[in-house]
Amino acid sequence: MNIQFSQDQKQTVYLSLKILEMLSLMKVQLFTVGRLSTNCYVVSCLETAEAIVIDPGFEAAFEAEKVTEYISATSLKVKFIVNTHGHVDHIGGNRILKIEYAVPICIHEYDAKCLTDYGNNLSPSNILLKGGNTLEFGRIVLKVMHTPGHTPGSVSLINRGVVFTGDTLFAGGIGRTDFLGGSYSDMKTSLLRLMDLPYTYVIYPGHGLVSTIGKEKRTNAFLF
Ligand SMILES: [Zn+2]
Ligand SMILES: [Zn+2]
Questions:
Q1: Per-residue pLDDT tens for 75-131?
Q2: pTM score, two decimals?
Q3: Is residue 5 part of a domain?
Q4: Do residues 125 and 116 lie in contact, with contact meaning Cβ atoms separated by under 8 Å?
Q5: Of 92, 135, 140, 169, whose CB neighbour count within 10 A is largest?
Q6: Number of domains composing the chain
Q7: What is the 29 CA–ligand 1 centroid distance (Å)?
Protein backbone atom coordinates (compact mmCIF):
# COMPACT_ATOMS: atom_id res chain seq x y z
CA MET A 1 0.00 0.00 0.00
CA ASN A 2 1.38 3.37 -0.94
CA ILE A 3 0.19 6.17 1.34
CA GLN A 4 0.72 9.69 0.14
CA PHE A 5 1.02 12.43 2.75
CA SER A 6 0.41 16.07 2.02
CA GLN A 7 3.00 18.61 3.11
CA ASP A 8 0.72 19.65 6.01
CA GLN A 9 0.31 16.06 7.17
CA LYS A 10 4.05 15.53 7.03
CA GLN A 11 4.56 18.64 9.11
CA THR A 12 1.97 17.41 11.66
CA VAL A 13 3.61 14.00 11.90
CA TYR A 14 7.04 15.59 12.24
CA LEU A 15 5.87 17.91 15.02
CA SER A 16 4.11 15.05 16.84
CA LEU A 17 7.31 13.03 16.77
CA LYS A 18 9.30 15.99 18.05
CA ILE A 19 6.83 16.47 20.88
CA LEU A 20 7.05 12.78 21.78
CA GLU A 21 10.82 12.99 21.74
CA MET A 22 10.85 16.00 24.03
CA LEU A 23 8.22 14.52 26.33
CA SER A 24 10.18 11.33 26.61
CA LEU A 25 13.27 13.29 27.60
CA MET A 26 11.51 15.41 30.18
CA LYS A 27 10.04 14.18 33.43
CA VAL A 28 7.66 16.38 35.38
CA GLN A 29 7.10 15.52 39.03
CA LEU A 30 4.37 17.43 40.84
CA PHE A 31 4.36 18.26 44.56
CA THR A 32 1.37 20.12 45.98
CA VAL A 33 2.57 22.43 48.74
CA GLY A 34 1.33 25.10 51.13
CA ARG A 35 -2.10 26.24 52.31
CA LEU A 36 -3.01 27.42 48.82
CA SER A 37 -2.12 24.04 47.29
CA THR A 38 0.57 25.42 45.02
CA ASN A 39 1.92 23.15 42.31
CA CYS A 40 5.67 22.83 42.75
CA TYR A 41 7.28 20.97 39.85
CA VAL A 42 10.60 19.20 39.67
CA VAL A 43 11.38 19.01 35.96
CA SER A 44 14.26 16.82 34.90
CA CYS A 45 16.12 15.65 31.82
CA LEU A 46 16.01 11.87 31.72
CA GLU A 47 19.24 11.68 29.80
CA THR A 48 21.48 13.84 32.01
CA ALA A 49 19.55 13.97 35.33
CA GLU A 50 19.84 17.76 35.35
CA ALA A 51 16.76 19.38 36.83
CA ILE A 52 15.02 22.56 37.88
CA VAL A 53 12.54 23.23 40.66
CA ILE A 54 9.62 25.47 39.68
CA ASP A 55 7.70 27.36 42.39
CA PRO A 56 8.85 25.84 45.69
CA GLY A 57 6.10 27.46 47.74
CA PHE A 58 6.83 25.45 50.87
CA GLU A 59 5.31 26.41 54.18
CA ALA A 60 6.50 23.48 56.27
CA ALA A 61 9.81 21.69 56.58
CA PHE A 62 8.26 18.35 55.62
CA GLU A 63 7.23 19.79 52.26
CA ALA A 64 10.81 20.77 51.50
CA GLU A 65 11.94 17.32 52.65
CA LYS A 66 9.53 15.57 50.27
CA VAL A 67 11.09 17.45 47.37
CA THR A 68 14.72 17.10 48.44
CA GLU A 69 14.22 13.39 49.19
CA TYR A 70 12.79 12.89 45.70
CA ILE A 71 15.75 14.74 44.21
CA SER A 72 18.31 12.66 46.06
CA ALA A 73 16.45 9.36 45.54
CA THR A 74 16.45 9.99 41.78
CA SER A 75 20.03 11.37 41.80
CA LEU A 76 19.00 14.61 40.12
CA LYS A 77 21.40 17.52 39.77
CA VAL A 78 19.45 20.71 40.42
CA LYS A 79 20.54 23.54 38.14
CA PHE A 80 18.03 26.31 38.81
CA ILE A 81 15.23 27.33 41.15
CA VAL A 82 12.61 29.10 39.03
CA ASN A 83 9.67 31.25 40.17
CA THR A 84 6.81 31.80 37.72
CA HIS A 85 6.07 34.99 39.69
CA GLY A 86 6.78 36.61 43.03
CA HIS A 87 3.80 35.65 45.21
CA VAL A 88 4.77 34.07 48.49
CA ASP A 89 2.92 30.82 47.78
CA HIS A 90 5.39 30.26 44.90
CA ILE A 91 8.64 31.50 46.43
CA GLY A 92 8.43 30.52 50.12
CA GLY A 93 10.92 27.63 49.76
CA ASN A 94 13.54 29.48 47.70
CA ARG A 95 15.87 29.99 50.62
CA ILE A 96 15.79 26.43 51.88
CA LEU A 97 16.52 25.08 48.38
CA LYS A 98 19.21 27.68 47.81
CA ILE A 99 20.97 26.53 50.98
CA GLU A 100 20.62 22.89 49.93
CA TYR A 101 21.76 23.18 46.30
CA ALA A 102 23.58 26.53 45.96
CA VAL A 103 22.05 27.19 42.54
CA PRO A 104 20.67 30.42 41.03
CA ILE A 105 17.14 31.61 41.75
CA CYS A 106 15.47 32.83 38.54
CA ILE A 107 12.53 35.22 38.41
CA HIS A 108 11.34 37.84 35.93
CA GLU A 109 12.97 41.19 36.55
CA TYR A 110 9.59 42.87 37.26
CA ASP A 111 8.84 40.51 40.18
CA ALA A 112 12.39 40.29 41.55
CA LYS A 113 11.72 42.73 44.37
CA CYS A 114 9.14 40.29 45.80
CA LEU A 115 12.04 38.05 46.85
CA THR A 116 13.21 40.59 49.38
CA ASP A 117 9.89 42.19 50.30
CA TYR A 118 8.50 39.58 52.62
CA GLY A 119 10.99 39.68 55.47
CA ASN A 120 14.22 37.79 56.01
CA ASN A 121 13.22 34.23 55.20
CA LEU A 122 13.77 34.67 51.46
CA SER A 123 16.75 34.81 49.16
CA PRO A 124 17.27 37.50 46.54
CA SER A 125 17.21 36.51 42.89
CA ASN A 126 20.39 35.59 41.06
CA ILE A 127 19.15 35.56 37.48
CA LEU A 128 16.67 38.14 36.26
CA LEU A 129 14.54 36.74 33.46
CA LYS A 130 13.11 38.54 30.45
CA GLY A 131 10.71 37.26 27.81
CA GLY A 132 12.64 35.31 25.18
CA ASN A 133 15.31 34.03 27.60
CA THR A 134 15.89 30.31 27.81
CA LEU A 135 16.56 28.02 30.74
CA GLU A 136 18.70 25.06 29.76
CA PHE A 137 19.20 21.93 31.82
CA GLY A 138 20.46 18.74 30.25
CA ARG A 139 18.89 18.48 26.80
CA ILE A 140 15.82 20.46 27.83
CA VAL A 141 15.37 24.07 26.83
CA LEU A 142 12.50 26.00 28.42
CA LYS A 143 11.69 29.29 26.75
CA VAL A 144 10.53 32.16 28.95
CA MET A 145 7.36 33.91 27.77
CA HIS A 146 6.57 37.08 29.70
CA THR A 147 2.87 36.75 30.56
CA PRO A 148 2.03 39.70 32.85
CA GLY A 149 -1.42 40.37 34.26
CA HIS A 150 -1.54 38.36 37.50
CA THR A 151 1.68 40.16 38.46
CA PRO A 152 3.91 42.44 36.35
CA GLY A 153 6.63 39.78 36.20
CA SER A 154 4.59 36.61 35.64
CA VAL A 155 6.17 34.21 33.18
CA SER A 156 5.19 31.02 31.41
CA LEU A 157 7.84 28.44 30.59
CA ILE A 158 7.52 26.65 27.31
CA ASN A 159 9.04 23.56 25.84
CA ARG A 160 7.81 21.78 22.72
CA GLY A 161 4.60 20.16 23.92
CA VAL A 162 4.49 21.67 27.40
CA VAL A 163 3.79 25.00 29.08
CA PHE A 164 4.12 25.90 32.77
CA THR A 165 1.66 28.76 33.23
CA GLY A 166 2.07 29.76 36.90
CA ASP A 167 -0.99 31.72 38.03
CA THR A 168 -1.76 33.08 34.55
CA LEU A 169 -3.85 30.18 33.23
CA PHE A 170 -5.48 27.33 35.14
CA ALA A 171 -7.62 24.37 34.12
CA GLY A 172 -11.01 26.10 33.90
CA GLY A 173 -9.81 29.47 35.19
CA ILE A 174 -7.39 32.36 34.96
CA GLY A 175 -5.31 34.17 37.54
CA ARG A 176 -6.67 37.04 39.61
CA THR A 177 -5.74 40.52 38.48
CA ASP A 178 -6.87 42.43 41.57
CA PHE A 179 -3.62 42.04 43.52
CA LEU A 180 -0.99 44.77 43.65
CA GLY A 181 0.52 45.17 40.18
CA GLY A 182 -2.21 43.11 38.50
CA SER A 183 -3.63 44.22 35.16
CA TYR A 184 -6.68 42.78 33.39
CA SER A 185 -5.67 44.20 30.02
CA ASP A 186 -2.17 42.68 30.33
CA MET A 187 -3.81 39.41 31.35
CA LYS A 188 -5.98 39.39 28.21
CA THR A 189 -2.92 39.92 26.00
CA SER A 190 -1.00 37.19 27.84
CA LEU A 191 -3.87 34.71 27.52
CA LEU A 192 -4.16 35.40 23.79
CA ARG A 193 -0.47 34.62 23.39
CA LEU A 194 -0.85 31.39 25.34
CA MET A 195 -3.87 30.45 23.22
CA ASP A 196 -1.64 30.73 20.15
CA LEU A 197 0.23 27.63 21.31
CA PRO A 198 -0.74 24.35 19.63
CA TYR A 199 -3.84 22.52 20.90
CA THR A 200 -1.82 19.54 22.04
CA TYR A 201 0.38 21.45 24.45
CA VAL A 202 0.06 20.22 28.02
CA ILE A 203 -0.58 22.96 30.60
CA TYR A 204 1.08 22.63 34.01
CA PRO A 205 -0.53 25.43 36.05
CA GLY A 206 0.47 27.00 39.37
CA HIS A 207 -2.56 25.49 41.11
CA GLY A 208 -5.07 22.76 40.27
CA LEU A 209 -5.23 20.18 37.54
CA VAL A 210 -3.13 19.66 34.46
CA SER A 211 -4.87 20.48 31.17
CA THR A 212 -4.14 21.16 27.50
CA ILE A 213 -4.36 24.29 25.37
CA GLY A 214 -7.05 22.59 23.25
CA LYS A 215 -9.20 21.70 26.24
CA GLU A 216 -8.98 25.21 27.69
CA LYS A 217 -9.84 26.74 24.32
CA ARG A 218 -12.97 24.60 24.17
CA THR A 219 -14.10 24.74 27.78
CA ASN A 220 -12.55 27.62 29.77
CA ALA A 221 -15.31 30.23 30.14
CA PHE A 222 -12.79 32.95 31.05
CA LEU A 223 -11.22 32.73 27.61
CA PHE A 224 -14.36 33.45 25.56
ZN1 LIG B 1 0.04 34.30 42.40
ZN1 LIG C 1 -0.42 31.03 43.41
A1: 999 999 999 999 999 999 999 999 999 999 999 999 999 998 766 557 888 999 999
A2: 0.89
A3: no
A4: no
A5: 169
A6: 1
A7: 20
Beta carbons within 10 angstroms of residue 175's beta carbon: 26
Q: Which ligand is nearest to the CA of 207?
A: 2
- Inside any domain, residue 11: no
Q: What is the distance in A from the centroid of ligand 1 to the CA of 96?
A: 20
For residue 87, give the ligand nearest its CA: 1
User: Which ligand is closest in space to the CA of residue 37?
Assistant: 2
Closest CA to 43 of 133, 125, 162, 155: 162
| Residues in contact with 146: Cβ distance below 8 Å, sequence separation at least 6, in sequence order | 108, 130, 131, 153, 154, 155, 190
7 within a domain of the structure (yes/no): no
Q: Are 127 and 105 in contact (CB under 8 A)?
A: yes
Nearest-angstrom CA–CA distance, 53 and 90: 11
